[in-house]
Each structure stands twice: as structure tokens, then as C-alpha cells.
Design a protein that fits this description.
This protein has about 240 residues and is an alpha/beta fold. The protein has nine helices and seven strands; from the N terminus they run βαβαβαβαβααβααβα. Helix 2 links the parallel strand 2 and strand 3.
Length: about 240
């Protein structure tokens, strides 16, 4: 029987109605040459995603079929509870992020002075000589990133990134509470505070990013930005 931390990386994939992309993104994760397991948690999909997942035969794949949509954050926490890897990263079930970026993220997180690694989409654009397009989503993200840096005295450039790689022991010690998209902001807030407490660093690695639209299935809406600000304030002053 595989014991905890015998596996190097646990990849948590939360899916809700992602039939068009779920098989492709899981195949991409499998192809990354890292000792890993993949935990897929389906949040009661109704578009065939669940059936696609059940029909896959991929190495290292573990499937959890939720009886109802418990929220992305709640599913991520369940994935953390089940994880057998030494490190954990969340992978969205669409094609916006490239799992090949796990390799530099993993190299960075294993350095002794590093508590966590965050994949920065903006540093990735800069690396490739590109600029951020001025969409409403990107303007909102810039505002939240700036608010986070001011509130937490941090230099992180991309607080809402999906790719945050952390040891499973640290994640379990954070007592994460968020059940929805708020977990995306609770996590960096608590990591920044923990890093200062233990004298370690959170570092960023440039990553690739291929954004999709609402028509293509993007689930973030404007009210999630308000939720993000409320979450950052809560964990800065009251939690």
C-alpha cells in the first residue's frame, strides 16, 4: 500500500461541467514526467463530464464523484485531505494552464528556504515579450493583486493564479475554511503570514496562460472580485 508522501506530487483537479476539456487536460497532466497522483473531484456535473472521467484509464488517476456541487474550495480541501503526495498543486479542468509548468514549480518548492511557489501568468507574459490585454477580467485582477500587495506588504504579482504549489503538511496546518472561489485568496493570505512566521519565502515562477471566455465556459464573474476583497480583508484583520 502506498504510504503518505511516497508520491512526490498530488495534482487536484476539480471539475464541474467541463466535458469539452476534461479528458484532454488529464492527458496533459499524465504526460508530465513527475512522480505523481491525480485526484479528480467531479462536482455533480450534468454535461457528461462525470461519465467521461469514469471511462478514463489513466495511470495514477483517483476519482471522487461528489453527489452534489459542494463548491470548488470545498472540493480542493477534500483533495488535500486525500492527498498522498509530498507536495500539492491544483489544476483547473479547462485548458487555461499548462501542466508542463509543474516542473519548474516543483524545482522551486523543494528549495529549503521556500515555503510555497506561485505560478505567475503576468511574469510568463513578460518572459515571452507579451502584454496583458485590457479586458474587464484583467483590470479586476490587477486591482485585486495591487490590493493584496498593499494589504499584506507582499510583492506577489498574481495572487489569483490557479498554480500554487505547497507541501501537503503546510496545507493541512493552515485550517483552510473557504468552500468556493474564496479559497483562492484565503490560501495566499495565510501562506504569506505563515512564511513570515517561519522565516521562509514565497517565490513566483513564470507560467503560460491561455485564457478562455464565458462562452467557452469561464465561471468567474464580477461578484467573485468582491468576494476576493472581502476574503483578503477577513484574513488580514480578523482571522
Amino acid at each position: 500500500m502506498t504510504q503518505a508522501n511516497d508520491i512526490l506530487l498530488t495534482v487536484i483537479v476539480v471539475a464541474h461541467n467541463e466535458a469539452d476539456t476534461i479528458a484532454e487536460i488529464l492527458q496533459k497532466v499524465v504526460e508530465v514526467e513527475i512522480d505523481k497522483e491525480i485526484i479528480v473531484l467531479d462536482n455533480a456535473s450534468t454535461d457528461g463530464t462525470r461519465e467521461i472521467i469514469q471511462g478514463l484509464n489513466l495511470p495514477g488517476l483517483r476519482t471522487v464523484l461528489q453527489p452534489r456541487n459542494i463548491g470548488k474550495g470545498h472540493a480542493v480541501k477534500e483533495g488535500i485531505r486525500l492527498a498522498r503526495g509530498k507536495y500539492v498543486v491544483v489544476q483547473d479542468a479547462d485548458l487555461e494552464y499548462d501542466p508542463r509548468d509543474f516542473v519548474p514549480l516543483l524545482e522551486a518548492v523543494q528549495r529549503p528556504e521556500v515555503l510555497a511557489v506561485s505560478g505567475s501568468r503576468w511574469l510568463g507574459l513578460r518572459r515571452n515579450g507579451k502584454r496583458l490585454t485590457h479586458t474587464a477580467y484583467n483590470v479586476g485582477r490587477n486591482l485585486i493583486d495591487g490590493f493584496f500587495r498593499l494589504l499584506y506588504c507582499s510583492n506577489l504579482t498574481d495572487v489569483s493564479t490557479c498554480y500554487k504549489m505547497v507541501s501537503v503538511d503546510v496545507l493541512r496546518s493552515l485550517e483552510l475554511r473557504g468552500d468556493g472561489f474564496d479559497l483562492d485568496f484565503e490560501l495566499p493570505a495565510k501562506l504569506v503570514r505563515r512564511a513570515r512566521q517561519v522565516g521562509k519565502r514565497i517565490v513566483e515562477v513564470p507560467i503560460a496562460y491561455y485564457p478562455r471566455t464565458i462562452v467557452e465556459g469561464k465561471k468567474i464573474r464580477w461578484w467573485h472580485g468582491l468576494q476576493a476583497i472581502g476574503t483578503l480583508l477577513k484574513y488580514r484583520f480578523w482571522r
